[in-house]
Design goal:
The protein is α/β, with parallel strands linked by helices. Helix 3 packs across helix 10.
C-alpha cells in the first residue's frame, strides 16, 4: 500500500508537470475544470452532475484529434501502473485482494481524459484483469485513460469445468459481489481523478462476457431487482454501492463484447437507459441473444440478451450498436484492434450527438436507423 501511495504521488507530480512538455496533441482542446456535484439516487444507479458542463465537454472531445481509429500515442508514451483498490471476502469468506492496472498517455497535455474501466470474462469463476490488458493499451494509445480490474470470483457449486453446478441464488450473489467491486473501483479512481488525470463527466464501462453481465447489472439493476433473485441480498452482502451518496461521476455508456445478459428481474426504465455497444455471436450458446437462462443452464434465471436490450434502447432513442458475428458458439473472432476502433467510434458518436441505432453483421453495416 505504501508503494501505491508513493506511485500515486509521483503520478500527480508528473501530471502537473505536463505543461512543461509539448506533444503532437498540444492543439487538442482541454475541458475546463468545473466543480462536480454528486446527487444521491435512492432507486437506481443513475449519475447526475452539471449537464451544461457535460455538453460543452462533449463538443470539445468530439472535435479532438484523439479518440478515433488512429493510435496517436506509441506504447513507449504510455504510463503503466499496477495496484490494489480493495480487499474483500469472497463467496467462501476468504479475504481477496482486488487489483488494478492503469494505462494512460504520459506525458499528456490533456489533464482530464475520458475514463474507460474494463472488466474481464470468465463466467464469474475464473480470469483476471490481464485478459483485457491488450484492449486497455490500444485504447490508451488513442488518448483514453483506461483501467482493468480484478473482481471477486466464484460461487458455491460452480467451477470452471461446470458453471451449471450451482443455483440461481448463488449466481445472483456472485453478480452482486462483482457489481459491488466495480462500484468500489469507480469510487477509488474518481476520488483521485486529478492524480489519475480523469474526467468524471466522461466515464465508460467495458466488459467481456461475465464482465458484460456485471457492467449491465451496475447500469440497469437496483438492490430491489437483485432481491427478486435472492430475497434480502443487501442484508447479507451489504449495499450494492456503499458510497452511493457520494457519487460524483457520470456513466456515459457501456461497451460490451462476447455476449451480454441482463436478468429479467430488472425493471427497465428510460431513466437508467445508457447508450450501449454490443458484440455477440449470432448463435451464442452461453449468453442469450434474445431471452434465455444464464450460461445456458436451464435451472438458472432467465436473462435478456443484446438483441432484446438494443431494441428496448432504440424505443427510447438511446444510441446502440449491435455487432453480430455469424456462426455458433460464444467466443468471437473479431480482433481486439477492430473492437477498440468500434468502441472509440461509438463514443465519438455520443459526443457528436449522433444517436442512431446501428446493426453490423460481421463487418458489414446492415441497419443505420436515425431516431
Amino acid at each position: 500500500m505504501k508503494s501505491l501511495i508513493i506511485n500515486l504521488c509521483l503520478l500527480s507530480v508528473l501530471f502537473w508537470c505536463t505543461h512543461c512538455f509539448s506533444h503532437r496533441t498540444k492543439t487538442d482542446p482541454t475541458p475546463s475544470g468545473d466543480t462536480l456535484v454528486g446527487v444521491p439516487i435512492p432507486e437506481h444507479p443513475d449519475f447526475v452532475l452539471d449537464t451544461t458542463r457535460t455538453s460543452d465537454t462533449d463538443s470539445l472531445l468530439g472535435a479532438s484529434q484523439r479518440f478515433g481509429t488512429q493510435q496517436i500515442f506509441e506504447l513507449s508514451e504510455l504510463t503503466h501502473m499496477d495496484g490494489q483498490y480493495s480487499q474483500q471476502p469472497d463467496f467462501s469468506g476468504k479475504s481477496t485482494t482486488l487489483g488494478f492496472t492503469f494505462v494512460a498517455p504520459h506525458p499528456d497535455t490533456m489533464s482530464r481524459r475520458p475514463f474507460i474501466l474494463i472488466l474481464h470474462e470468465g463466467a464469474l469463476l475464473f480470469g483476471d484483469r490481464g485478459l483485457e490488458l491488450e484492449k486497455a493499451k490500444l485504447l490508451a494509445q488513442k488518448g483514453f485513460a483506461v483501467a482493468t480490474i480484478d473482481y471477486r470470483l466464484g460461487f458455491a457449486g460452480g467451477s470452471q469445468q461446470d458453471a451449471c453446478g450451482s443455483n440461481s441464488q448463488e449466481v445472483a450473489k456472485a453478480i452482486y459481489r462483482a457489481t459491488q467491486d466495480t462500484f468500489t473501483a469507480l469510487h477509488f479512481f474518481l476520488s483521485q481523478s486529478e492524480q489519475f488525470g480523469l474526467d468524471s463527466a466522461q466515464v465508460f464501462l467495458a466488459g467481456s462476457s461475465a464482465g458484460a453481465i456485471v457492467i449491465a447489472s451496475l447500469a440497469y439493476m437496483t438492490e430491489r431487482d437483485f432481491s427478486s433473485l435472492f430475497p434480502g441480498i443487501s442484508s447479507v452482502l451489504g449495499p450494492l454501492d456503499a458510497l452511493q451518496a457520494h457519487r460524483q461521476f457520470k456513466l456515459r455508456g457501456l461497451l460490451t463484447t462476447t455476449g451480454f445478459a441482463l436478468p429479467v428481474s430488472n425493471q427497465f426504465r428510460a431513466t437508467n437507459a445508457r447508450p450501449t455497444l454490443f458484440f455477440q455471436k449470432e448463435k451464442d450458446d452461453i449468453l442469450p441473444n434474445i431471452l434465455g437462462p444464464l450460461f445456458g443452464c436451464n435451472h438458472y434465471f432467465n436473462c435478456i440478451g443484446s438483441d432484446s436490450l438494443s431494441k428496448k434502447l432504440a424505443e427510447h432513442g438511446i444510441a446502440t450498436q449491435l455487432n453480430i458475428e455469424t456462426g455458433q458458439g460464444h467466443l468471437l473472432a473479431f480482433p481486439n484492434q477492430y473492437i477498440v476502433d468500434q468502441y472509440a467510434a461509438f463514443i465519438r458518436r455520443l459526443w457528436n450527438k449522433d444517436y442512431r441505432q446501428r446493426i453490423y453483421k460481421d463487418y458489414d453495416l446492415m441497419m443505420d436507423q436515425p431516431y
